[in-house]
Amino acid sequence: MSSIFSKIVKGEIPADIVYQDDLVTAFRDINPAAPVHILVVPNKEIATADDLADEDEALAGHLLLTARRIAREQGIADRGYRLIVNCKADGGQEVPHLHLHLIGGRPLGSMVKRQA
Ligand code: AMP
Q1: Is the pTM of this model over 0.85?
Q2: CA of residue 95 to ligand 1 center, whole Å
Q3: Residue 54 in 3-state DSSP?
Q4: Segment 66-104, tens digit of pLDDT
Q5: Sign of the CA dihedral 94, 31, 71, 84?
Q6: I need a surface site. Which of 24, 65, 93, 101 has the fewest CB within 10 A?
Q7: Where are the domains of the chain?
């Protein structure tokens, strides 16, 4: 079954796409956590970071460099931003299609809430 992000990649459901090439697609998160919240996804369906194969090395690098370029275009690179890849249940991954969150535009605080 096609993931919701695959449908966005193929243009089958609408999204606010900010960048697309042969390998990756970037679009605004529907429920943004900050003024800039963009998801960068591989066009091919890879369920989780744990499913990346050796042959995906260039693709994984391209995801990261695409996020870096978009951060510059969005004007958040100088002050900084956060890149997050949630993986599987304990990682808090909800959509089973690998995606890199690019989040910024405000101070984001510490990375992970520590348990009391
Ligand atoms: P994760 O918890 O890492 O799997 O994050 C999934 C993200 O996808 C969440 O931040 C959602 O708000 C976002 N999301 C879910 N459906 C859509 C959609 N149709 N368009 C854009 N973002 C979405």
Answers
A1: yes
A2: 7
A3: helix
A4: 999 999 999 999 999 999 999 999 999 999 999 999 999
A5: negative
A6: 65
A7: 4-103
User: Rounded to the nearest whole angstrom, what is the distance from the C-alpha of residue 57 to the centroid of ligand 1?
Assistant: 24
Question: Active site residue: 37, 97, 99, 101, which one?
Answer: 99
Using the structure block, give the residue that is written with the tokens 């969005």: 74
Strand partners, 24: 42
Pick the CATH number of 4-103 from 3.40.50.2300, 3.40.47.10, 3.20.20.70, 3.30.428.10: 3.30.428.10
Look at residues 7, 50, 63 and name the one whose alpha carbon lies nearest to residue 15.
Answer: 7
CB atoms near residue 26 (< 10 Å): 23
Dihedral angle sign, alpha carbons of residues 90, 43, 101, 13: negative
Structure tokens at 55: 């042959």
Verify whether residue 101 is a known catalytic residue.
no
> Rounded to the nearest whole angstrom, what is the distance from the C-alpha of residue 42 to the centroid of ligand 1?
14
115 — pLDDT class (breaks 50, 70, 90): confident
CA 52 to mean position of chain CA atoms: 15
